[in-house]
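hiii, so i know i said id send this last week but things got crazy w the move. better late than never?? heres the sequnce for the chain we talked about at the cafe, plus the structure i predicted for it. fair warning i was half asleep when i ran it
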Amino acid sequence: MPDAAAEPGTAAARDAAEEKSALSHPAIEPDSTAGYGDHPDQVIDFYAPHGGAGPGGAAPVVVVLHGGSWRAPYDRRHISPFAGFLAGRGFAVASVEYRRGAEGAGAEGPGGDPVAGRWPDTFDDVAAALDALPELVRRHLPQADVRRTVLTGHSAGGHLALWAAARHLLPADAPWRTDRPTPLRGVVALAPIADFEVADKLDVCGGAARQLLGDGELFAERRPYADPALLLPTGIATTLVQGCADVDVPQAVAEAYADAAAKAGEVVGVTLLEDVGHYPLIDPAADACAVVAEEIAQLAW
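okay and structure toks below
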């Protein structure tokens, strides 16, 4: 997280102000919550559509994967205002929680920050949640059309959204691999940590990608199982939404993923927002959030 005491007018000060705005909204309580496993973090919050913003008929499902560098202190509550905003635009929303960071000894990474991610639990949970989702949606969001599902996620959650859409491309020995592509209308990844090699070089989020996979040889060994830039082409419509002023996950990360997709023969949409940083993409008070909703609508309706 940025230094809120940074000098006024600096990129860090702007980022801190945007973060403060995005996280200032009270949490929005879901209409219902269901578990997809036995761990307390293996739950999905469901938000029923309202507001009638869509063209009518059964509402598309938007699956939200929150960010926070895969670190334990940052859970789905901070993205609940964004989930509520989408529900108000006529979408049925499923906000997924998953295990993050480490428990007990080893819970802190370099510099004393919480360690990022938990291998393989973070991936176990996202795969299990997506597998359980159709039945849970039918039970908790009967007004929704699960056949029109769009994945979205912010930052580390954007990585998980891209990864979840690419499970059919995982190595044959990956426990999360599927036989065929997940039936999705598309993916809208928001400032995603989409290319681990570039993110590692730029030390994105304090080296979060390397903490998630493990240092040394583990980072190289696990990348084919976790890095979306190595899991292409997916055959699923994908759009990246990226703030050009993002200092947390710089534009270069999204561009690297788009370049990798192009080399694999796939066109990935990239929506660049001038003078927008990392947090406005999930801030209901920011214009960028409405742009995100429109990108989702273009794939969902």
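btw The first helix runs from residue 11 to 22. thought thatd interest u
miss u guys!!
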